[in-house]
Amino acid sequence: MGQSMEARYLPILPREFRSIPQLAKFDDAALNEMGVVARVLPFKANHYVVNELIDWDKAPDDPIFALLFPHREMLSARHFSELQTLIQAGASDDQVRLAVHRIRRELNPHPGEQVQNNVPLLDGSRVEGLQHKYRETVLFFPKAGQTCHAYCTFCFRWPQFVEDSSMRMALADSEMLVQYLRRHEEVTDLLVTGGDPLTMTTRRLATYLDPFLGSDLEHVQNIRIGTKALSFWPSRFVSDDDADDLMRLFERLTSAGRHVAVMAHFNHPVELSTNVVRRAISRIASTGAQIRSQSPVLRHINDDPAIWSSMWKEQVRLGIHPYYMFVARDTGARRRFDLSLERALQVYQEAVRNVSGLARTARGPSMSTSAGKIEIQGITTVGREKVFLLSFIQARNPEWVRQPFFAQFDENASWFDDLKPAGGERQFFFQMPSS
Ligand SMILES: *Cc1c(COP(=O)(O)O)cnc(C)c1O
Ligand code: SF4
Q: Could you report the per-residue pLDDT of 201-259, keeping only the tens digit for each?
C-alpha cells in the first residue's frame, strides 16, 4: 500500500467529518446531528470502507453507510436533544463531557454482566483479559488488539472504544494466558478477540500464538481469531507489510495440527464483493485455515431474508462456512437497529429455506445472555398457548445445552429479558434454585 497510517485511517473526531469528501452531499444540519451522536458513541472509518464498500448514491440509506456513520436515532430523543442543546449553547468541554459520560452510563454499557462474571482465577487472582464462560472455550482479549480498522455503529463492545477507562475490559499478557491454559485441559478452543486482534502486528500476534505450537498446550486444538478485517481492511491478508508473515503464522499452526478458524464478521454481501477481499479469502484458505462467518441481524443493514440468503450462498461459493446469526445485544445504539424476535426468526427461516444444506450451517437467531447463547428455534403452540421454542446453543452449565424450553409468545419482545416462561411457570428451568 505504501500509505502511512494517517493516510489510511479517517479521523475519529466528529468535527473532522468534513474531511471525508463524499459527505459534501449532506447539509450542515445533518453533519451536526452526526457530530452530536459521535460525542457519545465511537466513530472510525478508513479509505477502504468509504471508497470501496459504501454506495454514496444511496447514502444515507446505504447499508454500509448505516453500519459506519452515526445517526440521531442511535440516542433516545431525550439524550439527543439534551446534548445538542448543550453543544449549541456553547457549553464548556467539562459540561459536555459530564453529560456524555452520564448518557453512556444509561446505554447499558455492560450487557450480560460479562465483565464481572466471567473473568477466571489463577491461584486465587483474577486473570484480567480472559473470559472463561463455556467449559471448552477461553476468550482472550490481547491488549494491543482492542481497536478495529473501523467501528460498527451497532457494536456491543463500544465502551472500550470511548475514553472512559472504567468501561474498558482489562487485559492480560501472554504468560498468564499460557499458564492458565496449561492448567485447564478441558479447554479445546482459544478464541482471540477484541476489538479486532488483526489490528495487531503479526509479530505481536505471534508472541501470543506461537506458544500453542508446544506440546504442553496440545489440548487447545482450535485457535479461533475473531476479526472484521476481511470486511474493513482485507489488505491485512494481502498487501500489508506483514501480510505474508500472517499467512506464515497460520501455516505454522495448521502444520502443527491445530485448526485455525478465522471467525469473520460479515454483515452484508457487499463486503464479499471486492477483488481484494476475494484475494484475502483465498490466501487464508491456502494456509489450511478455515473461515467461518457471523453477524447480527440489524434493521437498516440486513433485516431482509434475501440479503442473508445471498450472503450465505456467496460465502459458501468462496469457501466460507456460515456459522451464527445473532440478535443484537441490548446496549449502545441498539434502539436504531433492533427488531422483534419474531421478525429476526422470520428473516432466519426465510433465508435458510432459500439456500442448500451447505449454507444451513448457520445457527440462530441467537441471543448471548448471561446464562448462555439462546437460539430461537421457532414459534408454535403448546396446548392453547402460543410460544417461542428456545434452546441453548452454549450454556454456562453444559447440561442445559439443547434442552428445549418455551417462552410466552410476545410480538414486541426484542431480547430475552422481555420474555416470560410459558405454561404459567414463574421461572425458566435454568433459573430455578438448584436443589
Ligand atoms: C460465543 C461464545 C463462545 C464460543 O461459542 P461457540 O458456540 O463454541 O462458538 C465462547 N465464549 C463466549 C463468552 C461466547 O460468547
Ligand atoms: S469490528 Fe467487531 S468489535 Fe470492532 S466495532 Fe465492529 S462489531 Fe465492534
A: 999 999 999 999 998 999 999 999 999 999 999 999 999 999 999 999 999 999 999 99
pTM above 0.90, yes or no: yes
- For residue 187 and ligand 1, the question of a CB distance below 6 A is answered with no
Q: How far is CA 231 from CA 45, 151, 406, in A?
A: 12, 11, 37
Q: Report which ligand 2 atom has the smallest distance to the Cα of 161.
A: 5
* Atom 3 in ligand 2: residue holding the nearest Cα: 195
Distance CA(169)–CA(26), nearest Å, equals: 36
Give me ligand 2 centre to Cα 154, in Å.
8
CA distance 401 to 397: 8
- CATH 3.20.20.70 location in the chain: 109-288
Confirm or reject: Cβ of 134 under 6 Å from ligand 1: yes
Task: Output the CA 118–ligand 1 centroid distance in Å.
Answer: 12
Ligand nearest the Cα of residue 363 is: 1
Is the pLDDT reported for residue 167 higher than 50?
no
**Could you tell me the CA-to-CA distances from 51 to 20, 46, 55, 274 in Å, in that order?**
10, 8, 8, 11
Quote the mean pLDDT of the chain: 91
Q: Evaluate: CB of 228 within 6 angstroms of ligand 2.
A: yes
CATH number of the structural domain 109-288: 3.20.20.70
Q: One-letter amino acid identity for 285?
A: A
Residue nearest to atom 7 of ligand 2 (CA): 155
